[in-house]
Specification:
The protein has one helix at residues 5-23, and strands at residues 49-52, 59-61, 67-69, 79-90, 96-100, 106-109, 112-118, 122-123, 128-136, 152-155. It has 156 residues and is mainly β.
Length: 156
């Protein structure tokens, strides 16, 4: 029998398929393994990343311990600034970086802008940063209001 390229390729293909059938592929379809996990919750003031030194007049903790900003009777066509409305305390063993979910530390609705202004966006271990609060009502009327959220994200 004369050997040509086609014969060699067919022979190698048969050898590869046959070798896989004899020795197996070592693959598997599924694995079940039990692992334990523990999660504990804490109020904002006691968590790994804590919100502390709440202003009290404008920033307070709700019934679940989460912070809320509640400002009423702000002047129209004015800017209200609260220096150190609250602090973000790093109780983690590593440096943390603060960010916001949508990339903006401010929210605007009905011609009212609320902005959180952190002194630092990187906080070292056992460190903290002050967060100022600024509310701008330029262009708003007496009947305007805002009900929104700003989500602060933390990474190491």
């Amino acid at each position: 029998m004369r050997s040509n390229r086609r014969s060699v390729l067919i022979g190698l293909g048969t050898l590869t398929v046959g070798g896989g059938a004899v020795f197996g592929t070592g693959a598997f379809n599924s694995v079940d393994a039990d692992r334990s996990i523990s999660v504990s919750l804490a109020e904002d003031s006691n968590a790994v990343v804590a919100f502390t030194n709440l202003d009290g007049d404008y920033v307070s903790a709700n019934g679940d311990g989460a912070i809320e900003i509640d400002v009423t009777d702000v002047n129209v066509e004015a800017t209200l600034t609260v220096n150190t409305a609250f602090e973000i305390q790093n109780n983690h063993s590593e440096e943390i970086t603060l960010d916001v979910t949508d990339g903006s530390w401010e929210v605007t609705e009905n011609n009212i802008t609320i902005e959180l202004i952190p002194a630092e966006t990187t906080v070292g271990t056992d460190g903290s940063t002050a967060v100022d609060l600024e509310i701008d009502t330029s262009g708003a009327s007496n009947s305007d209001s805002i009900d929104s959220e700003i989500t602060i994200s933390v990474s190491t």
